[in-house]
Design goal:
Length: about 270
């Protein structure tokens, strides 16, 4: 209803402007009152259209200028009619300009265009603000793990305040029934693996400290570490073999490049043979 009323008022103002401009073609008395009326009409129109005055700063003055354009044009044309020389040619030119102003104002409807421009800019601003709020309230996505072992490490030890924060499980190998080799690295490339507490791992895994070894990965930098958990297996050397060769064979499946540091022998349990 309000939009229809504004549309009707705008049409009426266009007709009134056309009549004033036409009257000014042959009567200078109309010039000053007509120009004053155009200025007052523009001011009143802006006052009753707060959407234009309160438009986002990015389009506010563009919308105000667009709304006031026909009123300003009417005042300028009235002044031009008074200053224009007399004569039939001049009168025809002035009449053509009046017709052009009337047709452009009637078809383009600058007031409606200014309101639409302000409304669109406001809608875009609100959408951007809503998107920002939505992004700030989105719950963090749970990390994806390559395997259940990686999930176990990430959720048990790599959490904030854990034994090995900021680390990930890169690889693991079941060396024997009682021994597992893990290769861990940092989440942020170029950062060294933080010091991992052997007593902390021992308490968390209920594993004797002497069965936990943490050391470098041969041929790699400080961004990765080898963690061996459990009793390292020792296989009885056959003819032509020694402990280093046996361990090299085991290490080839657990982590290439791991060297034998110390070896002990014992009888293999029946269930492992």
């Amino acid at each position: 209803m309000l939009a229809r009323l504004r549309s009707t008022v705008g049409r009426a103002a266009t007709v009134a402007g056309a009549v004033t401009l036409t009257g000014g073609l042959g009567n200078d008395v109309v010039t000053l009152p007509g120009a004053a009326a155009a200025v007052v009409t523009a001011g009143v129109g802006l006052a009753v259209n707060p959407k234009v005055l309160r438009a986002p700063e990015s389009v506010r003055w563009t919308a105000v200028a667009l709304y006031a354009a026909p009123h300003t044009g009417c005042a300028v044309l009235l002044a031009g009619e008074r200053l224009a020389p007399d004569g039939p040619v001049s009168l025809l030119v002035q009449a053509a300009v009046v017709a052009l102003w009337t047709g452009a104002t009637w078809l383009l409807r600058p007031g409606l265009t200014a309101r639409d421009l302000a409304a669109e800019a406001l809608a875009q601003e609100l959408a951007a603000a809503a998107k920002t709020v939505e992004e700030s309230t989105v719950e963090p996505v749970a990390p994806e793990y390559a395997s259940e072992a990686a999930r176990w490490w990430g959720e048990t030890f790599a959490v904030e305040g854990g034994i090995a924060p900021g680390t990930v499980l890169l690889a693991h190998q079941q060396v024997s029934e009682q021994c597992v080799a893990l290769v861990i690295g940092t989440q942020e490339r170029g950062k060294p693996v933080p010091d991992i507490s052997t007593p902390g791992l021992s308490a968390a895994l209920d594993l004797p400290e002497e069965q936990i070894d943490i050391g470098p990965v041969p041929g790699r930098g400080a961004g990765v570490r080898l963690v061996v958990l459990g009793q390292r297996p020792v296989v009885e050397a056959g003819p032509g073999d020694d402990d280093a060769e046996v361990w090299a064979e085991i290490a080839a499946t657990a982590m290439p490049g791991v060297e034998l540091v110390e070896a002990t022998t014992y009888e293999m349990p029946k269930e492992l043979t």
